[in-house]
Amino acid sequence: MHDWPYPSWIAHRGAGTLAPENTLAAFRLGASYGYAMFECDVKLSSDGVPFLLHDDTLVRTTDCATLPADADRVAGHHPWQVLSQLDAGSWHSPVYAGEPLPTLQAIAHFCRANAHFLNIEIKPTIGTERHTGEVVAQHAAQLWRHAAVPPLLSSFEIPALEGALASQPDLPRGLLIHALEDQSWAQWLHHAARLRCQAIICNYELWDAESVARAKAGGFRLMSYTVNEASDAQRLIALGTDGVITDRVDQFHPQS
After folding, report:
1. 39-61 per-residue burial string, b: 16 or more CB within 10 A, e: under 16
2. Is 2 designated active site?
3. Which single residue of 29, 136, 152, 199 could bond 15 by disulfide (Cβ 3.0 to 4.6 Å)?
């Protein structure tokens, strides 16, 4: 992408912690604060429907206790018909009771109707990394087929990005990096180049003058997660990074 089309402020999981994450309610709330770009997590149901959920299991953010006591709690082991019946809002607060898990299709319709941008983090169920990348990319390409700006696909899982690249090479990709414990900057940059990524999305603490210079020299756009303090945001902006993912949609004004 010769011209980077994405806004510099991105609402984490829709509206950070102000609404139940990865729901349409969170997206609507984030938009009410002026955000035009959102980050969300997408995985596959057992019958191949892309839907929004961060965790491997349903325990933290749904009422999965309503499932039979011996039922599997791993989200990706259930068909969409079961997942679509779960309450994904009550865990956050009573006002969101009954909020369902949304499909990627529902989020795409919301974003496209409102001219919003999206960063889709591919969150595979263990053992389905490449397949999930392939299928999510296929759905994204179809859902945004006439859009001027496609979603940015990202993942911590290299096989997921390999699948996305093989499936839909024209969609932009970003490599997520949490820490440098097992790989050097040179190795991460090599992975990003091999995967033909347009962006590197880091734990914000990893960006400093040296790492910014190295990533920019490689031709990458630079993004950061999850930035919730004004001093951190100011440092990242001063370093010349391109995007800040935040929970604090009520504190940071995306127009500023």
Report:
1. bbbbbbbbeebbbbbbbbbbeeb
2. no
3. 29
Q: For the residues of 27-87, what is the DSSP string, one character each?
A: HHHHHHTT--EEEEEEEE-TTS-EEE-SSSBSTTTS-GGGS-TTS--BGGGS-HHHHTTS-
Is 54 catalytic? The answer is yes
Q: Strand, coil or helix: what is 76? A: helix
2, 12, 109, 146: the active-site residue: 12
Backbone angles phi, psi at 244, to 5 degrees: -125, 120
- Here the tokens at position 158 are 């290299």
Residue 65 lies in a domain: no
Which amino acid would we find at residue 54?
A: H
Kindly tell me if the per-residue pLDDT of 123 is higher than 90.
yes
Is 71 a member of any domain? no
Q: pLDDT for 38-55, tens place per residue?
A: 999 999 999 999 999 999
CATH of the domain at 31: 3.20.20.190
- The residue annotated as part of the active site, out of 2, 54, 78, 190, is 54
- Would strands 221-225 and 243-246 be described as parallel, antiparallel, or unpaired? parallel
Domain-embedded: residue 3: no
